[in-house]
Amino acid sequence: MKYSETTLRVRYKDTDQMGVVYYANYFIWFEVGRSEFFRSLGMSYKYLEQNGILLPVIETYCSYKYPARYDELLKIVTRLHSLEVVKLGFQYEIMNVETEKLLARGETTHAFVNKQGKPVVLRKQNPFLWRLIKDKLQVKKEI
To answer: Which helix (H) or strand (E) holds 134?
Structure first.
């Protein structure tokens, strides 16, 4: 399965008074991972939007294993785990680069919608884009 990796450093503003990362920041980091995932394929969210496809989050999940702390360098591993006619799903792992400890694992599911927010069947709306994603991502689960 195709995946991408990116790193980021925990900023002070991402933490609470104890220096521990606020839980909702992991979802922001999932977005960072997704953006870099698409870039690694030679496209971007901007490209999708210019082609009339938006990807709102319709489901999300995160399991926290250990806290991330201020100034730690983190690695975000992002994988596409499903591609369906009207949605796709990603899995994430966030790890401390120095200790290689898994800090969090999560998932997001996104719908394909047009600019009016109506669901679209990507394979019909934009066959070229559908093939591009399907071929480059080598997804095993497709419906």
So the answer is: helix 127-137
